[in-house]
Amino acid sequence: MARQNKEKLVIVESPAKARTLGRFLGKGYRVRASLGHVRDLPKRHLGVEIGKDFAPRYVVLPEKRQVVTQLREAASRAASIYLATDPDREGEAISWHLVQAARLDNLPLYRVVFHEITDRAVREAFRHPRGIDMNLVNAQQARRILDRLGGYKLSPLLWRKVRRGLSAGRVQSAALRMIVDRERLIQNFVPEEYWTIEAELAKRGVAPSFRASLVGEPKPELHSQQETEQVVAELRGAEYKVSHLQEKMSQRQPPPPFITSTLQQEAWRKLRFSAEHTMAVAQQLYEGLPLGEEGAVGLITYMRTDSPRVAASAIREVREFIRHRYGIAYLPPHPRHYASRSKTAQEAHEAIRPTLVGREPELVKPYLDRDQFRLYQLIWKRMVASQMAAIQLRITTVDVQAHNPQSKRDYLLRATSSRVTFPGFSLLYSEGRDEEAEEAKAALPELSQGDPLELLGLFPEQHFTQPPPRYTEATLIQALEDNGIGRPSTYAPILSTLGQRNYVEKVDGRFRPLELGFIVTDLLLEHFPDIVDLKFTAELEEKLDDIARGERGWVPMLQEFYSPFEATLAKASSAIEKVKMADEPAGEDCPHCGRPMVVKTGRYGKFIACSGYPQCKTSRPFMARMGISCPECGGELVQRLNRKRQVFYGCANFPECQFATNRCPLPQPCPRCGGLVTQRGRDRGKCLKCGHIQKITEPEGIPVSTEV
Predict the structure, then answer these.
(1) Any residues with CB less than 8 A from the CB of 503 and at least 6 apart, and which?
(2) Could you confirm whether 286 is annotated as catalytic?
(3) Residues 6 or more apart whose Cβ sits within 8 Å of residue 632
(4) Per the residue annotation, which of 302, 411, 471, 649 is the catalytic one?
(5) Of 16, 164, 442, 539, whose CB is crowded by the most CB atoms within 10 A?
(6) Are 627 and 488 in contact (CB under 8 A)?
(7) pTM (two decimals)
(8) Measured on CA atoms in the order 141, 147, 148, 153, is the torsion positive or negative?
(9) How far is CA 577 from CA 283, 524, 584, 588, in A?
(10) Which residues of the chain fall short of a pLDDT of 50?
(11) Cα gap 338→435, rounded to integer Å
(12) Exposed/middle/buried for residue 131 (C-beta within 10 Å: 0-12, 13-18, 19+)
């Protein structure tokens, strides 16, 4: 058969992507999947020739040898080869490795790139193929070798000096330092007392009343009950009137469409998806899912991106949808265009958006599982909302003068309210918050400047300053992005690795470093300060971006990193003493030999074991007693860890009692119904029985005792 009559071979990463792509290409094309990377550095040795310009020694992955053989055979029967891997550095590198591993460079090779798997985008990409971009490949190679040099050299040191199975890396270790630094701020935080005063006021003889807060100008310094009582006494004898009233219109603009980091943050806030799970589900939506008679369809654009840019055709489509669905009032006069906050954003990429806005979430819901639907709905709403009109607000500010005729002192109180005059994009979408919002204040009554007011009551309240909160998945990703650490594709594996290595655990959805996390961070900070330095890590990312743009050579960059690193490694290897992690007493004796039981930390986290090991091998799972009764059976609640190293709370009578919650139980019962209250946010609790929300006094949870 003449070569021109043969089929064209298209290679992608996954079978799902292959099915979707094959549907659009039709006859004349055969689509095969490589199942991800087929080559990598070897697992059992460094695999980098440091003295030969850091030449990598790649090997075909054992589990991919058959795949490579099959692709080589398919290529021998093809007229040409199209490499259609993902449109980023990793995808470019996968294509290059495929060519090298399967020896495909004796055939016409074409690289095709598309950011959505739709008929239009795929056909356009195949009309304009290009060659493999070696700048992108070299940037990925440099990252892989950089991580191998750091991890392969540092990890054995941690094994010898701390414990086997540990790992270190430039991005992972910098993220761990952020969590540890935040925890030490919390531990060293000294609360400061302060007081606020609110006054209940009303126009004389007119309802309703309203509350105004003491603001001062200057505001009295209230740091004790005695100081506060003195001001309260002054305010009781004061005369009140409206001294100033202002009304102004304000707008709240919609947030931009998602990029990788903001999608991961919002999916955590609204859906409680981990970054890892978010990216796994987004991959499914991107690669394509069967929608009944329509067949396999890519529902969203590529989900690894740091650019909020949206194609003009997609903006036109969304604006037309808004005009028909919501009316002209919800359509701003001009399209909205969003710029990236990051100077390293790849503007050739697009934001994460639905591939077809007319494919509304409810229309595709029957074909998606629960998580696929919820994430698609989030992406769809965010994109449509980003092109909708702003929220219009009327903000009213009332200043109240309190004049005490005896002391001749004046005090300033202020009340504010905002009223939505036009809902704009909030008709469809509201952005999530990392902390629970303040309670909405009641609308102010009709007031005029000079109106005399009647004092109905004074409400002093004691407060204490709070430490910064622990990081959630959302706030840690935001902090990593703000500091230039990592890139869109790295956030999910970073967070996953920290838990897998027992460096951190999750408590009420927030990262708390374990003892091992403190030890490793302190060791690296003392002997390898660059590895955990945020600025140094960010500068390395910028250099990798320079390589991707062809502005820097990858070998000189590696030399610049490795020379000082090698010297520091040699010095640290002889200077560091082995770290002995003390076992924590469990408060009981071994039931078999009578020696004390201790809390140990192993590969899979904490457990209770006999101190006489290895002579006595008695052990059992670790639990922490809460001192709180189970709301279902009356047993005691205990703190546990799931397989993902996340803290949850369940009944000690498991499996007889199945009660469990991922919210920290609080000792104070609900004041309304006596039900179990769990922590919501930093200073609020919610009853699981009646839903009542109340303020709590211990925002970081309650102390627990080690128990079995």
Answers:
(1) 176, 513, 514, 516, 517, 520
(2) no
(3) 651, 657, 658, 659
(4) 302
(5) 16
(6) no
(7) 0.80
(8) positive
(9) 45, 13, 21, 32
(10) 1-2, 347, 437, 698-708
(11) 26
(12) exposed
